[in-house]
Design goal:
- The structure holds two protein chains of two kinds.
- By secondary structure, chain A is mainly alpha-helical.
- Helices cover 69% and strands 3% of the residues of chain A.
- In chain A, strands 1-2 form a two-stranded antiparallel ribbon.
- Chain B is mainly α.
- Helix content of chain B is 60%, strand content 0%.
- Chain B is elongated and about 55 Å long.
- Classes of the chains: A mainly alpha, B mainly alpha.
- Chains A and B meet through α1, α2, α3, β1 and β2 of A and α1, α2, α3 and α4 of B.
């Protein structure tokens, strides 16, 4: 996204895991749309029934913050950068369904307004960066969180691990889609994607834990799903 | 909704943090190729990337404005639009619960909400 990258790369392949048009075959792009629309429909339906009004400000802040955090590419080894995806953070704070809606808005706007990520492959990009990250991040956090109970530091450690895993899951999904599309063989794309995103995931984990720690220390009442013992649940 | 001072403060602080991130990214963000770009270059499939068919705020810049300021302004636009969409989506989806809460009076803090 920055001026020092060659213009052709800059315009076509935006930051992070945003797949530009041309990388994926038509069937993969269509499958992405189908999967994303199906999951999004479920997310809207469940949120429509259960979303507590108290979650509304947090949804606004999350959408804005994750968009902004995705602009902040941080350097990792070997002349490479990465940025936060935010799906795990949103899912831990909002629950997976509201998180999927927020992430769809972020990734969708990036493609439509900022030409970051292709339009034809937008379904795939939402699926990889918004849906997979939210569902996987939430699942890990929910399973592991009770084990550490009220230990704040361990709780943040769990958030770190959950966030790290979501980046790898999204990277693996991208490698699979590149392979199925005939763009890059799996034995080439998979190790490369997993390797570089193992480092990027550390940044994701640190930022996720920091954001949760910050909110926990200032507005713990907004951390419903993260801490069921706190005052009230955003998602009923 | 029950829009109280604490909520307003949270919203203002949260959006300010997002704004600072977006604006400062124009100067601070790494310009190195990111994960997928790096792999696409190393594995020689970067050329398959197609140019977008149209441009509005291409690559987080505002057309006609040069330099980091362009990215900073595009970031502010993005943060504002995203906040609007997030709040609107939340309001729209939580409306029924909202109406119910209004009927029953504000739910006490500490209610489980089911």
């Amino acid at each position: 996204m920055m001026a020092v990258t060659p213009a052709v790369v800059e315009a076509a392949a935006g930051p992070g895991l945003h797949i530009p048009d041309g990388f994926l075959s038509t069937p993969v792009a269509i499958a992405g749309w189908v999967a994303t629309i199906a999951v999004l429909a479920v997310a809207v339906r469940i949120s429509n029934r259960r979303l507590n009004e108290r979650a509304v400000p947090l949804m606004g802040v999350m959408a804005a913050f994750i968009f902004a955090a995705q602009m902040m590419n941080f350097p990792v080894a070997g002349g490479t950068s990465g940025h936060m995806l935010g799906g795990a953070l949103a899912a831990i704070l909002l629950g997976p369904w509201a998180a999927i809606i927020v992430m769809t808005a972020v990734v969708g706007l990036q493609a439509v307004l900022f030409q970051d990520g292709g339009i034809a492959v937008l379904g795939v990009n939402v699926f990889n960066m918004g849906i997979l990250t939210a569902l996987v991040g939430y699942a890990i956090y929910r399973v592991a969180q009770p084990l550490v109970r009220d230990n704040r530091m361990l709780g943040l450690g769990v958030a770190f691990v959950a966030a790290w895993v979501t980046v790898e899951v999204a990277a693996i999904a991208t490698a699979l889609q590149l392979a199925v599309s005939g763009t890059s063989p799996l034995d080439v794309a998979l190790p490369a994607m997993v390797g570089v995103h193992a480092l990027i995931g550390i940044g994701e984990g640190l930022l996720t834990a920091a954001a949760i720690g910050f909110i926990a220390s200032t507005r713990a009442d907004l951390l419903p799903d993260a801490a069921p013992a706190a005052s009230s649940r955003v998602q009923a | 909704m029950n829009w109280n001072n604490r909520t307003t403060i949270f919203l203002v602080v949260g959006l300010a943090v997002a704004g600072v991130f977006a604006v400062s990214s124009a100067w601070l963000a790494s310009g190195e190729p990111d994960g997928l770009e790096r792999v696409a270059e190393d594995k020689a499939f970067i050329d398959r990337a197609e140019e977008p068919g149209y441009e509005i705020l291409p690559d987080y810049t505002i057309p006609g404005i040069d330099g980091e300021v362009s990215t900073a302004l595009a970031g502010v636009v993005g943060v504002a639009v995203m906040a609007g969409i997030g709040l609107a989506a939340g309001r729209l989806l939580s409306r029924r619960g909202d109406a119910r809460d209004t009927e029953a009076g504000a739910p006490p803090r500490g209610s489980t909400g089911g």
